[in-house]
Amino acid sequence: MARFQVMAYRKTLKRQRLVILDEDIALMIAQECEEEEDISITELHDALKGCLEKLKSHDRELLLHRYWSKTQLKDYAITAKSSIGSLKIRLFRIRGTLKKCINHKLETANSPQS
């Protein structure tokens, strides 16, 4: 259910030319939603947005290229003077960082205030 909601929300954003989620990231978020059913899509979206803002500019640039650009990663590798393999490793690490950040934000937001 969560997966379909995330995908529907992504489709709505795409129609508005506001797509900020790659399908891989959307599926990762949907899996998290299934595990944490009490989390709303809006909370998840807000957490992702906040975490993206915390990234270093060069990491955010790589994500933008990978998930929003029509050009291939090898073209970016040439521009960045880096190998495709190292960019893939960076993307893997960035996605891990985003996942930890999102989980932390959601846990913090959903924890009872003392």
Structure notes:
12% of the residues are buried. This protein starts with a helix and ends with a helix. The model has no long low-confidence stretch (mean pLDDT 79). With 114 residues, it is mainly alpha-helical. It is globular, with a radius of gyration of 15 Å. It has one domain (2-110). The chain has six helices and no strands.
Strand content: under 5%
Q: Which runs of at least 5 residues are low in confidence (pLDDT < 50)?
A: none
| Span between termini | 33 Å
Compressed to H and E, one letter per element, the order equals: HHHHHH
DSSP strand count: 0
* Tally of alpha and pi helices: 6
- Give the total of domains: 1
What's the Cα radius of gyration? Answer: 15 Å
- Proportion in helices: over 70%
Shape, principal axes of CA atoms:
globular
Mean pLDDT: 79
Structural class: mainly alpha
Q: How many strands, what sense, and barrel or not for the largest sheet?
A: none
Using brief descriptors, characterize the structure shown.
0% strand, mainly alpha, 114 residues
Short description:
Helix content is 77%, strand content 0%.
Annotate the secondary structure layout:
Blueprint: H1 2-15, H2 23-35, H3 41-54, H4 57-68, H5 73-80, H6 84-110
